[in-house]
Amino acid sequence: MSSDAKKETGTFDAGSFLESFMSMQKRWAETLSGMSGMWGSGGAPAPGIMGRMQQAVSTYGKLFGLFGATPFAAAVLRQPGGGAAEVWQEALSKMAANWAKFVVDLSRRAFENLQKGESRTDRVQDLYSSMIRTYEETLGRFINIPAIGPARYGVEKLGRSADTFLKFQTANVDFYGKLFKTGLDAVEEVLNQSREIFEGEITDETFDQFYHALMNVGEKRYYQLFTSTLFKQSIETMISNGLDFYKSWRELFEELLKATPIVTQSQADEVHKEIYLLRKRLSELERGKAR
Amino acid sequence: MDNANRMEQVSKVVAGRLVKIQERLLAGTRVLTEKLDTACGATPKDEVLKVDRWTLYRFRPVVEKPLPTPVLIIYALVNRYYMVDLQADRSMARKFLDAGLDVYVMDWGHPARGDRYLTMEDYIDGYIDQAVDFIRNRTGQDRITLYGICQGGTFSTIYTALHPEKIRNLAIMVAPIDFDTDTGLLNVWSHHLDVDKMVDTFGNIPGDFMNVGFLLLNPLRLMFQKYIDFVEHVDDPNFVANFIRMERWIFDSPDQVGEAFRQFIRCMYHENQLSRGKFMLGGRSVDLKAITQPVLNVYAEKDHLVPPACSRPFTDLVSSKDKTVLSYNTGHIGLFTSGKSQTEYAPAIAKWLAEHCGQTGRTSQTRLTGQTRRTRPTR
What we know:
Number of helices of chain B: 14
Structural class of chain B: alpha/beta
Largest sheet of chain B: 8 strands, mixed
Radius of gyration of chain A: 31 Å
Number of domains of chain A: 3
Distance between the termini of chain B: 80 Å
Helix content of chain B: 40-55%
Helix content of chain A: over 70%
Largest interface: A-B, 37 and 34 residues
Oligomer: heterodimer
Strand content of chain A: under 5%
CATH architecture of the domain at 45-184 and 259-359 in chain B: 3-Layer(aba) Sandwich
Strand order of the largest sheet of chain B: 1-2-6-3-7-8-11-12
């Protein structure tokens, strides 16, 4: 912390603090980058394991610098030979391009369907498949990068939680999309049927007729949806993805709880199982004794 | 009619409707904020046995000398038992008492995490057997009548097949026995459930999860129309009280014990072992042909939870000579709560039970500790 700031005003000076913080980041990045030079002649990687360690330290240093003060990190990362920034930039560009393509495709298909007057539930299935594919080819690749370092175990669980959460939400979109679409289809059918009703005099009874027609048509439509193969696959996927997310979330939570004296659910289950088996054995012995 | 006129008509009707709804909501607010009697289980009963999470109740008889053979009502695990005694004017238990029956009911309670390893064997050969023996000792009867409802009917059937010497009559109501049908959505969807993954992840299956599944069976009527009808009648205190009781029961779903759930889904819904004669419990084969007692099979023609195709085959699978089938043009819950439930359905069932429970298997000497010395049973 700059002592000048304190002397001058007696209060915290954000500008000076940031300057000092960035200066500290610079010294860290220099140290780490400099360490890569210790293993061999400037720039050229040493052979064998030493060379691999040198590369690893160099990459680590650049990544660390990336999350430090941005102006200095940019300077570090502009070193010849490429750095983490270029990798990130390339990956982000690809991700953006894939998502843009997905949105354009979706819009084009939706427009085509509107023009044709088509209304098919399997289009929602297409949406789910497209979203999952796009996710797995873009953000999913980053989320599933293997973790390294002392927090590897926890970081992997965090990644798995995020991965399962996103897949669960995608399955939800598919599932609820089908339900919503069926409702819209029912309304459309009833409106077509009700043209004559609404062309005559409109009274309370007119609305009652429309309401009851909607209930009957909706019940029929939903039953058709629920017995369809697409829906069965959708509900299976949604429940499966939901269970994966629930499981991964619980594992993550238990990982956090390990540092506390709180008994986790898994630990309690072990005890419950033992108690159950003991009670079962006891009751068998009592029954044997009674005979 | 031109558009302007039509719009005017629509506006008038919509405005009229909105005014009516507002008036009803105002009246409904008065109804809801006054003291409403929404308690369930109006018929007096006494707790006679409590084991683990479940409790055995005896309804207080309304006649001086109830019929000798007691009736044990076994409800499903998926919902609470008090559907049989929802309110004073919709109580199947009350009808049974009026017919002179001695009625007991098992309340399975709410399982906790520690119960997740209980199996169907624990429920049927353990808890139900315990309750049956308790009643036999308490009443001095060698055999009792089982009345199983829904999944409780499946359990009662299995129990009777394994312990025929303890059961005088078997009555089941909307009970699934043959699961090989695609007329019910639960049967259709269950084949797409990875039950092992569900149980391994959840432990006990949450009651709310089951509720969502039941609501999805008919989402428009159960999540939309029902509440519109509520608003239409919100100014009627009786309607509101009945509605609240039903809502309380519907959403009072206990968690499903993991291992028993896994076993039930796999053995019944997936493999249909019971009706195929392949079901094993506690190492013993469950043979429905071992049931020779008088049986009553009650089912609902419009049942969307347990389609008639699941219940109907029961009478063909047993060896009983005395078989009675009662089917009604109503739904699963309608058998308990509809207008005809008190005037037609419950009295018919009570009549059958009274006719078959009038006989006694009483021994001349009975000790409450459970050991009976058999003499010639009187009939």
